[in-house]
Design brief:
Chain lengths: 106, 106
DNA sequence: TTGACATGCAACCAAATGGTTGCATATTAT
DNA sequence: ATAATATGCAACCATTTGGTTGCATGTCAA
């Protein structure tokens, strides 16, 4: 997985907001995601492309609409692999515990 | 705390590498941090300034040297407040557990 | 089938970013 | 005192980024 693409995608507040929206309600169309934002549809399209390239968003075409779905896997991966490094020992222990709870299935 | 500054600071691979270095050995001088990097000292200085503005790095002047110290607090804060949102239930439960282990001292 | 709706594509633009070079300043060692 | 070392500051540059506008295409409904 491309850490860098994910970090760069998360660097923009508008893109984080789009992820928030998808988190609140998954599977929205481009039009729905544009609604209420102070940006043109094309700007939103570009942001969604960036999120897609970072695998943070997946899409499905349905007729003339395009549905967008959030994918939390890369975020979790980064929390695990990168952020985890800088955490206190107590958090490290929890990470181990989590791995055990999840059955070490990776 | 300024989420945005932290996310933007983390968006650059060179800056993440600088954090890695400080994590490996804390309290390095600018010169030490430059060592072995394919960048001029001034470029590194700029990156360190970005990290400093995001409170990811703190500095202390010592004679003609400037020592740099990593500060993991903003990273943990983001892991808690933002990334946590997107995590699976099992991870949410762990976050609660962690809070209890830490004595809920916030 | 014709119009309305949802999205795609491309050119263009301003501002931010990441980098450089050159020179200034402050501190330490000889 | 002087030279070497460590950092600071500013101007400059190329590229990337985040945004726009205009037009094209595909799909649904009347």
């Amino acid at each position: 997985m491309d850490d860098d693409a994910v970090f760069r995608a998360l660097a923009d507040a508008n893109r984080r907001r789009l992820l928030d929206r998808l988190h609140a309600r998954n599977g929205q169309t481009l039009g729905q995601l544009c609604d209420g934002l102070a940006m043109t549809r094309q700007a939103v399209t570009k942001h969604l492309h960036v999120l897609e390239e970072a695998s943070l968003v997946a899409t499905r075409r349905q007729g003339r609409e395009k549905l967008h779905f959030i994918n939390a896997v890369p975020i979790n991966a980064i929390a695990e692999r990168w952020i985890g490094k800088f955490q206190q020992p107590v958090l490290g222990a929890l990470s181990d515990l989590k791995r055990r709870l999840e059955g070490d299935s990776q």
